[in-house]
Amino acid sequence: MKSYKLQIMKYSCYCLCLLFCSLSTLSFGQELDATVRVQAPNLGTSDKSAIALMEKSITEFLNTQKFTTDNFTAKERIKCNFQITIRQDGGNNNFVSDILVQGVRPVFNSSYETTLINLLNKEIPMRYDPFRPIENSKENYFDNLSSVLTYYAYAIIMMDYESFSLEGGETYCQLLQNMLNLMPATAKSIDKSWAGEKGKNNTRYDLIENILNPRMKPYRRWIYEYHRLGMDLLEKDVVQARRNILAALEAILTADKSYPNTYLIQVFCSTKASEIVEIFKKGTLDEKNKAFEIMISLDPSNASVYNAIKL
Predict the structure, then answer these.
(1) Handedness of CA 116, 121, 125, 127 (dihedral sign)
(2) How far apart are CA 209 and CA 34, in angstroms?
(3) Residue 63 and residue 70: Cα distance in Å, rounded?
(4) Taking Cα atoms as reference points, which of 152, 158, 182 lies closest to residue 170?
(5) pLDDT digits (tens, 9 = 90+) for 69-104
């Protein structure tokens, strides 16, 4: 009983410290506006109350942490969603989880928000300790949950910056690369997504390797041209905007031919497929045909989805 009371006191002190830090940093303008959901449909022997605490801790970490030196107004904060589904319960709050990560950005002169990143990372081993804070792990490894959340926070920020200026997220590309380089061998052995799993190309390692690979330069041009010269122009000049978006898709195709079957192309298709269909439904016959051919070349298994472009 004495030990349990001591743990509660420690947790209370941690909450007070977290509150103080949150209040003291509000004026600096945090980058993320995150919505977090943690679900555990098959929870076994772990404490069920830990799930609600985990959701609260992750929400506070993402929304109160200062990830960059730039200041964001409330309206500029990057909206994002983190959905964590606990698939296996090893007891003592040790879990294997899937995490769905989504980030969006507003389109100029519009109420529409375009998705920047939409990916699902499966089978992540993590332990949640309600008496320890989640830490920004850009330079130090504390635990896998902290590192995974830090990684995806910076990945969202990177994509946002890339969408506003050509290769504007380079600082955060390098930061993520450095995170991978500093990851201890023990962490890589626990969670192979840090090192790249043999026979797979859809890991956290692959995401950064792909985006920094010189063969994927056209992909980074796509991020900027699609969003800044395309989506942001739709309300003002829809005809020119569609032309620019089509040119950006051609850059994606160039990247795919130079470096086939990358994880980045998978992420692109899962993020943008439905949006591209809606954009080119209203295009000219020539635009419809070109967009259709590009998308089925990039994503042949979902050709039926892109048929809607030509209807």
Answers:
(1) positive
(2) 26
(3) 15
(4) 158
(5) 999 999 999 999 999 999 999 888 899 999 999 999
What's the rounded Cα separation, in Å, for the pair 57 and 21? Answer: 14
What residues contact 18, with CB distance under 8 A and at least 6 apart? 60, 64, 133
Beta pairing partners, 94: 91, 127
Tokens representing residue 136 in the block? 């920004």
Cα dihedral sign, 58-62-66-68: positive
State the DSSP H helix or E strand holding residue 39, giving kind and residue range, or none if neither. Answer: strand 32-39
68 vs 279: CA distance, rounded Å = 33
C-alpha distances out from residue 204 to 48, 113, 264, 295, Å: 29, 25, 11, 24
Q: Can you give the pTM of this predicted structure?
A: 0.89
Helices (H), the chain: 2-25, 49-64, 144-164, 170-182, 185-190, 204-212, 217-224, 238-258, 263-281, 285-298, 303-306
Residues 252-268: pLDDT tens digits?
999 999 999 999 999 99
Type of residue at 45: T
Distance in angstroms between the alpha carbons of the first and the last residue of the chain: 68
pLDDT for 257? 96
Angle, CA 54 vertex, CA 53 and CA 60 arms, to 5°: 90
Residue whose structure tokens are 């200041």: 71
Q: How many CA within 13 A on the CB side of residue 57?
A: 24
Give residue for tokens 């504007």.
168
Q: Give the span between the Cα atoms of 221 and 52, in whole angstroms.
A: 41
Distance between CA atoms of 291 and 278, rounded to whole angstroms?
11
Taking a C-beta distance cutoff of 8 angstroms, is the pair 150, 138 a contact? yes
User: What are the backbone dihedrals phi and psi of residue 110, each rounded to the nearest 5 degrees, phi first?
Assistant: -150, 155
Query: Which amino acid is present at 3?
Result: S
Please state, as a whole number, how many other Cβ atoms lie within 10 Å of the Cβ of residue 141. Answer: 17
Half-sphere exposure of 116 (CA within 13 A, CB side): 29
Q: Give the whole-angstrom CA distance, residue 80 versus residue 295.
A: 26
